[in-house]
Amino acid sequence: MKSPFKNPSSIPPLFSRCFPSPKHLCSQPQAPILHCPNPTEKITSDSHFTGKPFPDSENPIPNVPIDPHLPSASSEDSSLTQTHVINTLLSHKNDPVSALKYFRSVGEKGGFVGSIDVFCVLLHILVGSSQTHKQAQYLLNNNFDSDHSRPAPVVFLDHLVDTSKRFDFELNSRAFNYLLNSYVRVNRIDDAVDCFNGMLERDIVPWIPFMNILLTALVRRNLMDKARELYGKMVSVGVRGDSFTVYAMMRAFLKEGKPWEAEEFFREVKAQGVDLDAAVYSIAIQAACQKPDLNMAGELLREMRGRGWIPSEGTFTTVIGAFVKQGNLVEGLRLKDEMLSSGKPLNVVVATSLMKGYCKQGDIDRALDLFNKIKEDGIAPNKVTFTVLIEWCCRNRAVKKAYELYEEMKTMGIQPTVFNVNSLIGGFLEACSLNEASSLFDEAVESGIANVFTYNIFLYHFSKDGKVKEACSLWKRMVANGIAPSNVSYNNMMLAYCKVRNMDMANTIFSEMVERGFKPNTITYSMLIDGHFGKGDADRALDVFDEMVGVHIVPSDYTFNIIINGLSKVGRTFEARDMLKMFVQKGFIPLCMTYNSIINGFVKEGAMDSAFGVYREMCKSGISPNVITYTTLVNGFCKSNNMDLALKMHYEMKNKGLQLDVPAFNALIDGFCKNGDMVRACELFSELQQVGLSPNEIVYSSMISGFRNINNMEAANDLHKKMINEGIPCDLHIYTTLIDGFLRESKLLLAFDLYSEMLAKGIVPDIVTYTVLLNGLCKKGQLENAHKILEEMDRKGITPNVLIYNALIAGHFREGNLEEASRLHNEMLDRGLVPDDTTYDILVNGKVKDENLPSGVSCA
């Protein structure tokens, strides 16, 4: 606030402090009273501190010389004038204690305490002696309160200046600083700021300690703009302050959430040579941690140690937490050791930070060890400690331990939060412990702490598995309990319907979501697109994508991958490749899985040249193929009988340090088996085991079929025995292959032993198995046994196929039983089966050569 005795239009604000204050327009300026015990009494310009008017208050004090020989208070009558009191005070100018006693004695008589000028005169006398500085402060502090009817700061300042001139006092800035401090003490912050500004305008520079008090008060009240302005004015008059000033300003920057400004300010004042203390370094470290700039934090810690300062427990706590948050657990642990060696105790905040650091690295055991250690040392874990451990135990599928912590938390009297409950519910659902999750969920609902996130966890669990009925039931329960569904809730319900390919209901949920004011997001549209692709409706999926772009929702990489994968799966792989190029132009960065989708699509379509072209394009763009990429290509080349390229992919994969998985090995093994190259197949089978993998039943099936195809049933049977010894189950296909092989070699007993073994294991023969048996028996003239198999098929309700009838007709034809052959032909017609060329070759032309008959297991 500018002085009322200056012309603001003629003196610019920035230069006003350079001019001395002009004389008052009146030699006897009066002001409102300073203290009025009676709040109902009218305050006038010539009232007194007690609120009692002077007997001669209508007459202003004349500007006349003061007589130093006026009588003291003890000889006065009850009617005292301002002139008399001021003259008496001035008579004790060199004896401030007596002056103060006189002032108090007058007040005790109840006749006079004094006007603002009397008060100013007394203040000048008191600050003039070091013996009464404290009394001056006490006088100000006890005569100021939060009553804003008291004199405005500039009025008081002008009276102080005026009385110093009129009564020949040296202008002592101490009185002004004490006045500034008094305004702050009684929480008159606006008046304190006006007082500060008024002092500068009168060329009175506030003392640094009192400036710091005001600065701190502003920061404490979040008046950051005023704090910045005040500091700027300090600097403009050449006062940069001290360590406390720096601390207050840095605290202001941090409260504003601007740690970079705090750090820059610290660097500036440090470069200017301001003597900084440990507190400033501590708050600078705090700023560095908030940025975060952990290099600077570490450097400041080293400087503190170099100056012989031991960082406080709070500083250690802040730095350790920052390093752990940035993933540098090693440095966090080192600082923890340094903290302990400095004599600072381990606290629960540091311990919790370190536990979280261990958890983020997946080392739950160490986190729990530290948890147990702090309890042994008498440090009580708090709610945050339990929350961290429960959450991360659930994330790492140690939900049983998480629940133990949950129960321990309650035993210690710490009330779990809904976040704890939600973590446990999610953990139990991940562990497929539906009963435990449901129990916790019901408990949360009954206690009233369940929120929309609690319901959404369960909704997602049902929705991702396509359990629409359960999801709908939970939705109704949520609404009935007064929990408003969120965007996520609607997305979950749409997901449920998309999983079961009920896109009509998914779209209905979408419409309801929009009608209720929720905004669909990228996830919403991506789910719908994926649902339509899953139903095989690629055109509708692309329409939804266009709609998404039309409402200005930016597709994510997840969306782009859904489209590319969806097109590839429905046989539109060339279109998927074109879409990829368009997406890349829009900033999409394809991943390995993106290219794998297209490669897989081309492989399924038999377009191996295109698949290999995408592979080269993938490598050229700097994306390294993974096991899935190579497995898909190897499988494709094997199916297209291009074993050389399949092996090339195999060797290239090994050169890149990638290990083939079992499906990749099987693709190669199966390819060589089908080509009759059992030497290569056996080499790969051995390599598979040498790299530490175990062949599964699919690998064994390929090998057994390969040996059967080259009529090496001994090797095939050895593999069968090896499977049984290793506990690998033989499936129907393997038994059928072995039975077929032994029947080809006329080893009927071995074939029927395997058939009996298969039935004993509860493996039910299918049409292929029966075809193999009947064909083998008929070829060997075992027509009676063949008819028994046919009767078994009838009992099981399995209708014979054309291949079986051809085998039986051919068998009877060989035996010369044309009547039975004809009967079987008629039976086949009665069953609605259409004879094929082989049937007529047998009946009409009499061709019963083996090449006219089925091999038995064409699927092998």
Features:
860 residues; mainly alpha; 44 helices; 0% strand; elongated; disordered N terminus; disordered C terminus
Outline the structure in words.
By secondary structure, the chain is an all-alpha fold. The chain has 44 helices and no strands. α14 runs antiparallel to α15, α18 runs parallel beside α20 (418-430) and α38 (732-744) packs parallel to α40 (767-779). It is elongated and about 160 Å long. The N and C termini lie far apart (99 Å). Residues 1-78 and 850-860 have low confidence and may be disordered.
- From the spread of the alpha carbons, the general shape counts as elongated
Over all CA atoms, what is the radius of gyration? 48 Å
User: N-to-C terminal Cα separation, in Å?
Assistant: 99 Å
- Measured by DSSP, the beta-strand proportion falls in under 5%
Annotation, overall tally of beta strands: 0
Write a brief caption for the model:
The protein has 860 residues and is an all-alpha fold. It contains 44 helices and no strands. It is elongated and about 160 Å long.
Layout of helices and strands:
Blueprint: H1 82-91, H2 96-109, H3 116-127, H4 133-143, H5 153-166, H6 173-185, H7 189-201, H8 208-220, H9 224-236, H10 243-255, H11 259-271, H12 278-290, H13 294-306, H14 313-325, H15 329-341, H16 348-360, H17 364-376, H18 383-395, H19 399-411, H20 418-430, H21 434-447, H22 452-464, H23 468-480, H24 487-499, H25 503-515, H26 522-534, H27 538-550, H28 557-569, H29 573-585, H30 592-604, H31 608-620, H32 627-639, H33 643-655, H34 662-674, H35 678-690, H36 697-709, H37 713-725, H38 732-744, H39 748-760, H40 767-779, H41 783-795, H42 802-814, H43 818-830, H44 837-843
Helix pairs in contact: 1-2, 1-3, 3-5, 4-6, 6-7, 6-8, 7-8, 8-9, 8-10, 10-11, 10-12, 11-12, 12-13, 12-14, 14-15, 14-16, 15-16, 16-17, 16-18, 17-18, 18-19, 18-20, 19-20, 20-21, 20-22, 22-23, 22-24, 23-24, 24-25, 24-26, 25-26, 26-27, 26-28, 28-29, 28-30, 29-30, 30-31, 30-32, 31-32, 32-33, ...
